[in-house]
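Example record

Each entry pairs one chain with its bound ligand, FE2/S2 (inorganic) cluster.
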Amino acid sequence: MKTINLVLNGTPRSVQADARRLLIEVIRDELDTKGARVGCLTGDCGACTVLLDGEVRKACLVLAASIDGNDVRTIEGLDAIEALQQAFVSHNAFQCGFCTSGMLVVAADLLKKNPSPTRDQIRHAISGNLCRCTAYEPIVEAIHSAARIDDARSDRR
Ligand code: FES
Ligand code: FES
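Structure tokens for the complex follow.
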């Protein structure tokens, strides 16, 4: 067993876990934070996507033992994503919802770094996240629309 210290969604946490466990397993099973999902566990689907020290990472590809005080954000810990969430609803950008938290993490990160992405830039950003339900275009349109809403808000400021 190893003591793993991290800052999860803004709160310092410490947990004892088998050194072979994956970050996604520790987040979900030991820290009871279920927004990031377990899909393939091979780095292919993106359901487990989190922000690790501000960078998009697949938490099934990170050994929990490699974490040492790092900042980890799941969908539960993202700020100001209401416009994105509303855009996903308005554009029917999910059906079963299994991929949605990972998509939202990637989309929020994209809009933070590039507030006015093109559709091609959005497609590139979500290219590591699989959705079995939507054929992707509603997701692309939702993210594009959320970017326009944010643009309009900043124009009014
Ligand atoms: S569960 Fe991590 S990429 Fe699929
Ligand atoms: S909404 Fe079902 S996998 Fe994306």
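The first strand starts at residue 2 and ends at 8.
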